[in-house]
Specification:
It contains eleven helices and two strands. The protein is mainly alpha-helical and about 300 residues long. The protein has one domain. Helix 5 runs antiparallel to helix 7, helix 5 runs parallel beside helix 11 and helix 7 runs antiparallel to helix 9. This is NADH-ubiquinone oxidoreductase chain 1.
Length: about 300
């Protein structure tokens, strides 16, 4: 039990530090896409800028309006980050996961579904129409894409005959699932962007019509916790993408693929404009869902024929 706690704390702190450097990577990539330098003053080449931002945010005074539900405003950003941290033990590090059971994919389903409620609480508790509208958009978007999100994971589970990320990684020792499933990988990456409310699907944070969206009433440490939860979810989904399509994270190639997928998620923000909301829903219900259901039925019949 003591070793488990030490490993969990070590991995959690490492991922939190990686989230800090992930933010500076995003700002640098967006800077070069827009032909500017990005942060380059704090530390060597601006590498300490995330820590400077964290100190500034957590030292700010927290103000709230008299209509705000104080208890939910305090706890909902922290719980949103806590749900992201709870996903860390089910990752398969170095051929084993910190929480090793045979059905950790089902645990991932549960945790990713719970995160929807905390986004809704963040928007509702501030008692602002802009933030409430942003949270409604976010919940509708995440629920719509969770259907195809879970079906794509179920497709990989059928291929590997397992509900464990460890078994899925081990079943790819001959050939990664990436080969022959390129359409599935593209659908998965687009769904990951929609699940994490990232551009071009960032409707919950539309500055032009929602004045920053569901986090408009949050400042300082509250905003930092929401920010950390979003970027940690992106890193975790990048790790899961590698375990599902590119063997595992136990070698240098796996970690290079994690870095590449993480950069692609950032690159898309600087390349594509925001979708229309009706196009987002049509993409989910009229394109991704039928394809996912067809692939699931086909793979189940194919496996039954092989048995």
């Amino acid at each position: 039990m003591f070793n488990f706690l030490i490993n969990l704390i070590t991995v959690t702190i490492s991922i939190l530090i990686s989230v800090a450097f992930y933010t500076i990577l995003e700002r640098k990539i967006l800077g070069y896409i827009q032909i500017r330098k990005g942060p380059n003053k704090v530390g060597f080449l601006g590498i300490l800028q995330p820590f400077s931002d964290a100190l500034k945010l957590f030292n700010k005074n927290l103000l709230s309006s008299e209509n705000t539900n104080i208890m939910f405003s305090i706890f909902s950003p922290a719980l949103s980050l806590f749900i992201s941290i709870l996903m860390i033990p089910i990752m398969s590090f170095n051929s084993y996961s910190l929480y090793d059971n045979k059905h950790n994919i089902l645990l991932f389903f549960i945790l990713s579904s719970i995160s929807v409620y905390f986004i809704m609480l963040i928007g509702w508790s501030s008692n602002s129409k802009y933030s409430h509208m942003g949270s409604i958009r976010s919940v509708a978007q995440m629920i719509s894409y969770e259907v195809s999100f879970f079906l794509l994971i179920l497709f990989i589970s059928i291929l590997s005959y397992s509900y464990s990320f460890k078994e899925i990684s081990m079943s790819q020792h001959m050939m990664p699932f990436f080969f022959g499933n390129l359409i599935m990988l593209i659908m998965w990456l687009i769904t990951c962007l929609a699940e994490t409310n990232r551009s071009p699907f960032d409707f919950a944070e539309g500055e032009s019509e929602l004045v920053s969206g569901f986090n408009v009433e949050y400042m300082g440490g509250w905003f930092a916790l929401i920010f950390l939860a979003e970027y940690m979810s992106m890193l975790i989904l990048s790790m899961i993408s590698v375990m599902m399509f590119f063997h595992s994270m136990t070698n240098m190639e796996g970690w290079m693929m994690i870095i590449m997928i993480s950069i692609i998620l950032l690159w898309i923000r600087g390349t594509y404009p925001r979708f229309r909301y009706d196009m987002l829903m049509n993409l989910s219900w009229k394109i991704f869902l039928p394809i996912s259901i067809f692939i699931i039925i086909f793979s189940m019949n194919f496996n039954m024929y092989n048995l």
